[in-house]
Amino acid sequence: MPSIANPPIDLTLLGRTLFHAAIVGAAAGLVGSLFFYALERTQHLVLHDLAGYRALRAHGELEPEGNGTPFRPWVLWLIPAVGALLGGILSATLAPETQGGGGDAMIDAFHRKGGFIRRRVVSVKALASVLTLGFGGSGGREGPTMQIGAAIGSVAARYLKVGARERRILLVAGCAAGMSAVFRTPLGAALLAVEVLYRDDFESDALIPALLASVVSYSVFTSIFGESTLFSHAVHYAFVPAHLPLYVVMAVVIALAASAFLGMLHLVQRRSAAWKVPRGVRPAVGGLSVGILATVVIVWIGPRVGETGQGFGILGGGYGAAQIAIVGGGWLPSGWRAAELLLLLGVVKLVVTSLTVGTGGSAGDFGPSLVMGGLFGGAFGHAARLIFHDPRIDPGAFALVGMGTFYGGIAHVPVSSLVMVCELAGSYDLLVPLMLAEAVAFVALRHQSLYHAQVPSKRESPAHSQEIAADLLEQKLVADVLDPTRPFVTFVPSSNADTVRGEAAKRPGQTIFPILAEDGRLLGIINPRVLRMLGQEHAFDSFSIAADWMRPAFGVGQRATLREALEKMIELEVRELPVLDEAGLLVGLLDELEVSRTYLEGSSRAEQRAMRESGVEAEDADA
Question: Which of 363, 443, 351 is nearest to 405 (CA)?
Fold first, then answer.
């Protein structure tokens, strides 16, 4: 029969995990649903009804009601600036950490802030993002929900009174739940949450809570808005091995485009940081630039494709533009013009997203990255079909693969982005090309990253510095830290009480006193309790000898690990251990201070190395 100590099913742990995940998932699902609805209504009222902007919609997005108003370019150019200004002031005043995409702030909170995110982040990030995106800022809703969901997980951890490790895990679970709610990719969102924290690693401990919270959040959202994939696509994508080299070339092209996006984004961030204007006003400058550029493109291209006021996915997330790249559209031309138009829209999306996010607008970079990948991938597919005259080449397949390749490369999340694209399309037909293209982009973009807060692996994360130091105790040997020059007192079995009392008094820092044979072998120990008794007057007569008070010998070998030595100290309730060589001869005493010093130095070095690797100065971490 199984023992009580090891039951066949740990119902206590199961119940605790399910309870915590359900709370975080349900809260993130409800908040995510409210955020999604508020954003859709704001875009409808401001862009559709006020400016007459015709937003391209993906298959799974809500369609606006009514015909709206005629296109008003003289209104549209100013609207993104107004929303960005309101959102920027709100963020800069109440929660500066909510400026920008949200992914970096979430990752930073996990690694360097103990998993703590302020409660106000939930409401401030949601409202600032509704203002920024609802008024036409170029960004996605998934980036904000990463931070909103993570904040919900962090707040839940405080109310549940869990420790630091569980707090970080609930932060990751909340991030997954937030993504799952608005993107409808429960598995991909959970994988992304544990993968995006590192460049080369996973937060494996958080995977199961992230999966559970993602399921609950997805269930809440689909109960309100219904179940549907975001993108429609061809009925079936045939696997053609001869096309795999084309996917490799496309992955290199996508990597170049992704690198250009990062360069543009970082350029805008540097330039805007140097502006002599209040931080909350900077997004308005980016919003004004976005509005002007979008209006010019719409006025210029619209009449040429017969769609006045057509947005082409420039403002907002732009998922409709990716949908057009996947399945085509009534206004999308054929031949080389299709490739040219998709390429142009991809470049415009690259610029307007950099202007929105780079100036501090509260908008995600995840959604636009997928859209840009889809546009560039679709353009490549059209060009390849024309060049090779191969009717089996489906540009939509290259668009879908390009979506995952673009974001997976710059965010260093090849596995989760692959799964998310399959979930977004509701098909795993393109699994093999996605695997190939993701791997190529991941290698090509090794030295670039969308998220500055990412660290290479757990060993470089301040969140795991204590674990790393604990590992150090397993790697270090007693011989590595033992000080052979440290003096200590020993006795022989015939040493009398006066000698023991006198010599022990000269070594107040020594707590155990070895009794040695003539050949140096350890025979026994006089422990602290015996010494206290010896200190009492008349407790022992002067004719007593050390052999009368010694206890059985104990010690540790030079080749033992510090962890083994520390465990023995705890077991025996002593502060020192005799250290013996291979012949059993005493070579010194190991003090608990030496073990503690090694642990703390290792922890400090690990944290400092993590800060250097991630570009964070110590004073920034303290702040």
Answer: 443
DSSP state of 62: P
Which of 181, 241, 187, 182 is CA-nearest to residue 421?
187
Rounded to 10 degrees, the C-alpha dihedral 20/24/29/30 comes to 110
CATH number of domain containing 102? 1.10.3080.10
- What 474-477 contacts at long range (C-beta under 8 Å, 24+ apart), as own/partner pairs, is 474/561, 474/562, 474/563, 475/561, 476/561, 476/562, 476/598, 477/558, 477/559, 477/560, 477/561, 477/562
Mark residue 615 as left, alpha or beta (left: phi above 0; alpha: psi -120 to 50; beta: remaining).
Answer: left
Strands of 13-160 (E only): list them. none
Token pair, residue 561, equals 């690990």
Tens digits of per-residue pLDDT, 191-250? 999 999 999 888 988 999 999 999 999 999 999 988 888 787 767 888 899 999 999 999
Q: Are 558 and 580 in contact (CB under 8 A)?
A: yes
Same domain membership, residue 151 and residue 214: yes
Instruction: Please state the domain count of the chain.
Output: 2
Residues 6+ apart with CB under 8 A from 392: 238, 240, 243
Q: Are 212 and 25 in contact (CB under 8 A)?
A: yes
Look at strands 586-591 and 576-580 and give their pairing.
antiparallel
Are 325 and 380 within one domain?
yes
Question: Is 226 within 8 Å of 412 (Cβ atoms)?
Answer: no
User: Kind and range of the H or E element at 576?
Assistant: strand 576-580
Q: What is the pLDDT of residues 417-470, one digit of tens each?
A: 999 999 988 889 999 999 999 999 999 999 899 999 898 888 778 777 655 555
Range of the domain at 323: 11-454
